[in-house]
Amino acid sequence: MYYFIIFPLLGGAIGWVTNYLAIKFLFRPRNPWRIGTFRIQGVIPRRRHELAVAVGEVVSRELLPQDQIAAALSTPDIRRNMAELAGETVARRVASFPVLRPFPRALRAAVAQQVAKAVNREVRSLLADEGPEMVNRVLSSVDIAQLVADELNAMDWDYLEAIVYSVAGKELKLIEVMGGVLGALIGLVQAAVVYFV
Known about the structure:
This protein is mostly helical. Helix content is 79%, strand content 3%.
């Protein structure tokens, strides 16, 4: 009868420990351990470069394709903000021109304001007509996949591991617990086989 206590406890402990170790071996050991001809290293550290390249390609192809970024940057709100920013920047520069210093401050401000309005109007018109093409031209020189891969490769191990645990911590804990539950069920079946056979 003690089979029905020992086997499930032993099976549950083995299932929990193996799942716990399997999850830990995703990130650890970070540096390879050599045991004879065997090399042991965590899955993510061993394949970090490949994973970073794959994630970068998925991000650039599926999540943030160039045409989607171009469309987002060409919305009326973005065009308006860019035109206003250009106008404000030019107005500050014009107001500080040495050639305008002899004139009264109010006149310099009025000139800067008129220039800002003209720049704002022209930039807004330019972006409305050629904005998507301009954005596509700029984005064609940016390799989003490589940027993402470089960021992931440069990321600190502790930070990367913390991100994974913050996103999937509950699910990983559930995997550990389910290992214990399944191990206990297998132990229960083994106890029944030993007891009845």
